[in-house]
Description:
This protein is about 85% helix and about 0% strand. It is mostly helical. The N and C termini lie far apart (about 80 Å).
Amino acid sequence: MAKNILDWLRNNLRGQSGSCEDCLKILELIVDGEATALQEKQFRDHIEACLPCYESFNLEKSIKKLLQTKLEKKPVPSDLIESIKSRINETAE
Length: 93
Ligand SMILES: [Zn+2]
């Protein structure tokens, strides 16, 4: 009985929390750290009832983390090194 009520609530939340399309727009804001508290709540309500959005949230988060880790490990971007190298070559010629 309690489980049925939970299922019913989940289905209702799903209806109230907007579409997956809206959810993914909020996801982009959250990943960029620009979502409002209300948007975050709407998003969390939705992903609790929607597995595809939940999975894509984790995916986006891991991509962002990976990029951050890479950037932290490489304080100087490789394209900057290349442009410095080419300037040195130009000066030498
Ligand atoms: Zn969804």
